[in-house]
Amino acid sequence: MTEKGTIHIIDDEPIIHEVLGDLLTSEGYTVVNSSNGEEALEKHSSRSFELILLDLLMPGMDGIEVLKRLKKIDPHAVIIIITAYASVESAISAMKMGAFDYVQKPFKHDELLLTVERAIEHKKLQEENLRLKDELKRKFSFENIIGKSKKMQDVFELIRASAPTRSTILLQGESGTGKELAASAIHQNSDRKSLPFITVNSGSLPPDLLESLLFGHVKGAFTGAVSLKTGLFETAEKGTIFFDEISSLNQETQAKLLRVMQEKEFMMLGGTKTIKVDVRIIAATNSDLEELIRQQKFRQDLFYRLNVIKIELPPLRERKEDIPLLVRHFLNVYGKENKKKVESITEDVLEILVNYAWPGNIRELENMIERAVVLTKTKLITRENLPPFLVSAQEERGAFTPSSQELNLKEHLQSFQKNAIISALKESKGIQKKAAGILGVKPTTLNEMIKRLKIDVFDLS
Ligand SMILES: Nc1ncnc2c1ncn2[C@@H]1O[C@H](COP(=O)(O)OP(=O)(O)OP(=O)(O)O)[C@@H](O)[C@H]1O
Ligand SMILES: [Mg+2]
Q1: Which of 6, 18, 103, 218 has the fewest CB atoms in 10 Å of its CB?
Q2: Are 305 and 328 in the same domain?
Q3: Residue 221, CB-side half-sphere exposure with 13 Å CA sphere
């Protein structure tokens, strides 16, 4: 196939072959001619074409019949009907049978070319979609985790290998990179899968409450402990506990966790008996634990205990080749959820998505696609369905490319992130929670980024 595609012209008039042939080849298409239905079908039995231009009125097998048979051979064939103005009605019935469009004879060259271009674009999208659907089915997913990049394939490999063991796993990655998803995939692929998988959000609770939640308490352990309460370690027996954002554990709880991991036993708050447990631990963090150890905020011994198998979830900007596949996946998910059949995204939208730095990683992409699916009124996602800050970021991309060659990648990303955050803050009128939603990061993450990037929230100009 030539780059622009091969077009099959099926028409009984040699003059049409000549005129269309000249026009289309001068535009870079390759042209193949057939003078009647039989000859055309014969050609289709051995190959396919990007586009078919089909005359309706031909001696012998008429165009409608040819159309029917072509669609039987190749249901995805894209066909434009050529028709005399007198027979527009039959052109319309051909459209009902799956023709892409029709042009009337005599046709204006630029109109015809435009229709041809649209049809070829449609064909490309269709092929890309079929290919992505196929890839999703085949090998580029593990449980619900999608990724074809080498980095994600390595992650799948590590998950596969470590899941069936009892080993503690440390998941490291920025916000929204899929740590929780990976933790649940590990549990699902272990022989613990029919037993509890419990997530502990250590950051969201005051230390005392967290400890009583984890280990339980006996009656009278503290004011308010009116009866005995079992903790999550007991509830999770033979299952898995997932510690989300392990870095937020305070020092005392860190010590207690270390003890459970070493001794495989613990005591309830206020209790005197030790309780044996068999629980697998998976921990996740988006901070640099080694740095926290240097700052004496995280225990080194606990780190070693946790860091038996480390799985790093790469940020989305380091595996942009996964973006089209993820988009396809989320179009399926949110198309179903909203009972909308959204088939694809336009090429310029894909380009915008691929060029964006995704500070909120996959969560941000997921939110963006969900929003676009809700907003679109057609089967296609166009740039109107993207948040304005993303489109203007693309238009002003000059502003994001380093002004001097010395600007390194980190600075470049920071300036990108800064701009994305400022735009989101502007869009949400400074309400951080809302801006976090737009960016697909947790409000706490956004707040941390605002501080780190020194964004003045009172001056967003
Ligand atoms: N590789 C992936 N394929 C498909 N969906 C993904 C993938 N990675 C993440 N997601 C989706 O993105 C969202 C965020 O993922 P998840 O909650 O696992 O991230 P996280 O790393 O735990 O984030 P945080 O640090 O903010 O808690 C979820 O809806 C998840 O299903
Ligand atoms: Mg998480």
Answers
A1: 18
A2: no
A3: 21
